[in-house]
Structures are given as structure tokens and as C-alpha cells.
Amino acid sequence: MRLLRLLKIIFVVLRFGLDEFLLAHSRTRWLLVPINLLLFARDTSAPRAVRLRHALENLGPIFVKFGQMLSTRRDLIPVDIADGLAKLQDQVPPFPSAQAVALLEATYNKKLNEVFRSFEEIPIASASVAQVHFAVLPNGREVAIKILRPGIARVIAHDIALLDICASLIERWWEDGRRLKPRKVVEEFEKHLHNELDLMREASSASQLKRNFANSKLLLVPEIYWDWCTDEVMVMERMKGLPVNHVDALRAAGIDLPTLAANGVEIFYTQVFRDGFFHADMHPGNVQVDADGRYIALDFGIMGTLTDSDKHYLAQNFIAFFRRDYKRVAEVHIESGWAPAATRVDELEAAIRAVCEPIFDRPLREVSFGRVLLRLFQTSRQFGIEVQPQLVLLQKTLLNIEGLGLQLDPELDLWKTAKPWLERWMSEQIGWRGFLNALKIEAPHYAILLPQLPRLLYQTLNEKPGVQIANVLRELVAQQKQINQLVILVALILFGFSVLYFIRG
């Protein structure tokens, strides 16, 4: 099975002239001549990016998905290939409905009509690893059922192994192979694919996002019906809306497109900076709009997460960027460890200014985030800045936001829309509200720590006798002073609130 699959891959590679990627090395370039003579019928006149895209489409859904993911890694691949792969479509032929029915009946150990009041056998959507059918639960609720493709795990395991072989060859024989790190790309792709194969994981992501946006006037997330969910089947609320890229239909439905575009920006920044948990696959097929102008999020297989540290440094970067404070942008890169400590601030500042300054005061239709990110990646390589793996999905999502915003409102000013929200968020993080929130979080820790101080002191003195005792005592005294200062500050704040309450009362 794997041998036949490998032979097909080799045939497709040769048919579309992709051997030039492997044989571009000076030691193997001579092999191109006999290959071209043997395969005289092949047409290699099309650009290499076009030929690569057609080859992935011929190899099947897993390779198509790999191409889609690879198109977001503009830090690793040439721009022409990234642009070409970005054109890959999500439409994949569905698997037979009889297989979907058989899988559901095996999952529930019941006949389908005993599980659902009705079931639409023709799928409404089909993707690389799953397809979606509409149904109605016994209680009358309309649902969407996501079903994994039968045997997809085995297919993915085989294809990943072959992709790794191809990546190894590229890394060894292509001149740019080592710099582009193809095996690392395959490893990252495998991780995301395995996450998508666990529909319970996807259901929990949807549930978390719904909780984050509970009672939101901007975003709707379908409810998950856990009693019907398994690793291979996810049952969720059926959402009814218009695809976000059907602009004429949205306009005819009375949707305010500029407001919709601005709301999309706010949703993005809320997910990233408030929650550190964001939908990372926001292409038009996964986003709808309801009759009230609220976004509807679908397909939660790819979600991004950020730590508090990532959020803090990102927010500082964005705010400094919006203020055109390029020196601060450079300083934040160095402080965060994203740039080497020996980097000269003035040189990095000048390079960032050259990339960013031309895009300000322009509507979205005149700005390409793709080009901006590409130039930033080039600057990163120049200064030895390593691309942060946790930010790759964020970069991908930014490109999705650009595409959606451009379709909805070409005059949208992303900077003016985002800047007030970010400044408000930062004031809540580092102002008095931020202090109170941090205090609320740390209070249980101090409540546990304070009674333990005498015992900890005794243990420490026994473990570190002699000359070290003085140093230990000094450390403990300093810690106690900090705790005392905190207690006094909390008391003053509470007293101030009491006085305000008394005066207003």
C-alpha cells in the first residue's frame, strides 16, 4: 500500500516537473536532461508555483491541506510558492453517504432512525478530514453532524510518513532546503492534523469559545450536544446565516458592511488579547453572518493559544506600532527575547520603520498584510530574529482578517479601529484595574503562604546552616517587607472604597 502510494507520488512529481526542486543542486542538475527526454510529454512551461498546486490537488486532500498550511509559512518558503499555494480550495469530494450512515450506527450501536428524528444523507459540506450532514434530534432541535472520513487516520499516517521522506530529500538536495526546514514544517502539520482528528477536542474548543463570548452582540458560536459526541462524531447546533463573502446577499439583507468589518476586527483582538484563545481558520467557508449582523463561527479544528507573556509583548508591539513608535517596537522585540540581546536598537528601529511607515493612513484596499508580513520576515532573517511557533497561527489569522475586511469594506482603517481597543485593554492590564485583578488572582496563594512562613523558615535554617543563615534571613526579611507593603496597600484601597461608599451614601 505504502509502496503504491510512493510510486504515485513519484509519478505526479515527475509529471508536473517538481523534480526541479530536488535536482536544482549543482551535483544533481544534470539529471534533469535525461528525465525531460524520458518524459517528453510533460509540460513544464507553467510557473513552478502553479505546477506545485496542481500536483498537490492530484495527490489528494491531505496534500491539499498540507499546501494550505504551507502557504501561511511565508517565513520559510519563497513568495511565489506561498502565493500559488494560497489559491488551493477547500472543496473536497465527499465520501459516500452509506459510509456516513454505517459509521453513525456503529458509533451509537443503534439504527439511525432511533438516534435522529431525521437525517439528510447528502452532505452540506466536505473537507479534507471530515464532512457535515444536517439532522434533527428526537427533541426537535436542528443539528449539524461532523463525521470523520472512514480510515482517514491510516491514510494520514501513510501520507505524513511519505511527506517526511520528501522533506528529507528536499532538505538534503535542494540548495535552500536547510534554511526552509521542510521537516519541521511537516512535523508542525502532523501536530495540527492529529488535533483535527479528535472531534471531542474540537467540540471542547467550540464550547470554550462559546463561553468566552457568552451574551456577545458580535459573535455566535454553536452549542455542542455532548450526549451525541465522540472522537469521530461531533453534533452541534445548526446555525443559519449567510456566508461572509456573499457581499451582495449581505447588502440585500440590510447588513451594515462597514460596521460588520469593524466588528470583525474587534472580535479578533478580543480573542487574541483578552482570551489568548482564538479561531485560527477564519476563511470565508468557516464564517457566516446572521440576520442581526452577528458573526457565526464554524469549524473549530484549528485554534490558537497565547500565554500571558505573549499577549503582553504583542499588545505592546501593536500599540507602539499604531503610535509609529518604532524604537519601542524594536525594544520590545529585544526585551521579549524574540530578537538577539546583542541587536542594536537603532538599526532594528530603522529597518522596521522602512517596512511599516508606507502603510499608514491608507485604507485596507491599498494595504497588503501579505507583503508587509513578507518584508517583516525578511527583516527578521536579517537580524537573526527567530519566528515564534506560537505566533504562526496568529499570522495566518491576520491574513484571513485582511481578506475578509477587504471584501466587506475596502475603506476600513484597521489602525483606527484597533488602536482604541488595544489602549483600553492595556490600561486594564497595567492600571489600577489590572492591579486589582492580579490581587484577586494571587490572594489565594498569599492566604496559603502566610501561615506557612514560620515552618518554611525553620526548614530553611536546618537545610542551610552556618554562614548562609544570615543571607537566608535577609531574603526572608525582604520578602516579609514586600508582603507587609502589599497588605498596607490593600488596606488603603479598601479604606478608600469605604470612604467613597460612605460619601455617596
UniProtKB/TrEMBL annotation:
Keyword presence, Protease: no
Q: Which CDD domains match?
A: UbiB
**Which keywords does UniProt give here?**
ATP-binding, Cell inner membrane, Cell membrane, Kinase, Membrane, Nucleotide-binding, Transferase, Transmembrane, Transmembrane helix, Ubiquinone, Ubiquinone biosynthesis
Q: Taking every annotated instance into account, which residue ranges of this chain make up the domain ABC1 atypical kinase-like? A: 87-333
- Pathway(s) served: Cofactor biosynthesis; ubiquinone biosynthesis [regulation]
**Where does the record locate the signal sequence feature?**
none
Which InterPro entries did the record assign?
A: ABC1_dom (IPR004147), Kinase-like_dom_sf (IPR011009), UbiB (IPR010232), UbiB_bact (IPR045308), UbiB_kinase (IPR050154)
Membrane spanning segments where? 483-503
Q: Which family does it belong to?
A: Belongs to the protein kinase superfamily. ADCK protein kinase family.
What is the name listed in the Swiss-Prot or TrEMBL entry for this protein?
Answer: Ubiquinone biosynthesis protein UbiB
Q: Which organism is it from?
A: Candidatus Nitrotoga arctica
Lineage of the organism: Bacteria, Pseudomonadati, Pseudomonadota, Betaproteobacteria, Nitrosomonadales
